[in-house]
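New to this. Look over this protein:
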Amino acid sequence: MDPELEAFIALFPPAQLDDPLAERATFAKLATSIPQPDTSAMTVEDRTVPGDPDVAIRIYRPHEAHGALVWLHGGGWVMGNLDTEHPWAARLAEASGAVVVSVNYRLAPENPFPAALDDVYTVLNWAAENATELGVTPDRIAIGGHSAGGGLAAATALRARDEQGPRIRFQLLNQPGLDDRLETWSARNFTDTPWINRAKVAAMWRYYLGGQPAPSYYAAPSRATDLTGLPPAYLGTAEFCPNRDENIDYAVRLLQSGVSVELHQWPGTFHGSQAILSAEVSRRQIAELGAALSRALAD
């Protein structure tokens, strides 16, 4: 474990998800403890995207943006909102120079799959149709997310490919949740890792899928057998994360399907440890996410 990260482990709450409502409150409290970003170089606007139902979004517009990112928060499909994601969406906009559209998708267990995916797809279509208003062109829209949000981003890319939906320029997938089967080495063996462990990941999938196996690869992208025709991707993984091996496997299968991939396995890190901003490795992770997105959206 990176020593700068290890010093904070005792301050993290137990890796459990027995009560989603209580854990949402804990998650929100953690988010408020993170140093807030400087948004003076951008405008921040809350909007509502029409749909069935409507979807709340928060738009971060750097003064000279050159592309857009539909961004999906983490929280195991059961936690998180626009406010908890504010520190990260703003930092990503600053680091990349891209317009970031943060999505307040519906949460499980009240709204299991496919509710969140439908919300994200609604926003993706809205972003493509309103690219000019966002100050970008329709061919410069990426999708991305962290953890559960990364899984939703990967699923949305699959759905857009299958349905000939909006052209997605790039996938920015940070420690994504991709596989409900939990059969990889890291998923089986990381039973006592900080913040996220096997039991907590299993609970997240139960809430999201209603206690059933994934009904399609839109629910668990690792179940897709055909990954051809997907957008180029960046995958970031954490060494001590149950998702690690499914992330690496997905990256390799994308490469074998002819999809350009940048894969970075961050040594000494754990799932979500980039929230510890005092650690040098966390600052590098956030900067790299921004740089990867900036390169992907450039001319």
User: Anything to note?
Assistant: Strands lie at 42-49, 55-62, 68-72, 99-103, 141-146, 171-174, 233-240, 261-270. The radius of gyration is 17 Å. The CA atoms of residues 17 and 23 lie 7 Å apart.
